[in-house]
Design goal:
CATH class: Alpha Beta
Number of strands: 6
Number of domains: 1
Distance between the termini: 33 Å
Order of helices and strands: EHEHEEHHHEE
Shape: globular
Oligomer: single chain
Structural class: alpha/beta
Radius of gyration: 17 Å
Strand order of the largest sheet: 5-2-1-6
Amino acid sequence: MRTYQQKTAETKHEWYVVDATGQRLGQLAVRIARALSGKQKPTWTPHIDDGDHVVVLNAGKVELSGKKWTQKVYQRHSGYPGGLRTETAREVLAKHPERLIERAVRGMLPPNRMRADQLRRLKVYRGAEHPHAGQSPAELR
C-alpha cells in the first residue's frame, strides 16, 4: 500500500454559489474557506492547491451577532504618519459589503503561498446577479 499524493495536473476546480442572505459572517466564511482550500475533498493534499471557485451573492445582506455592527473595527494604515484609518463593520457594509466577506475569508485561510491563489477564486457580489452562469455553479452545502 502506498499513500496517495495528488499532483497539480490532477486537480479539478469546481464552481459553487452561496447566498449570503441572513447568514452569519463567521460561519459563512468558514464554509467558503474550506471550499477554497479544497479541504472538503477526499483528495486534499496540504501542499497542492485543489480548491474550488466560490461565488457569493447578496453580500450586503450578511448578518453579525450582538453589537458587532458597532464594536467590530477594521483598521488600515497608509504608511504615512497619522495614516491610521478605522471603520466599523456597519460603515464597511454601507460602502463595500464585498470587502466584509473577503476580509473574513482571508482571515480563515492559512497565511502561506497558496492563499493569494485561493482568494483569486473567490467572487463576491453585492446583489443577486453574477456573470458566472456559464460555469453552472452548484449550491455549496
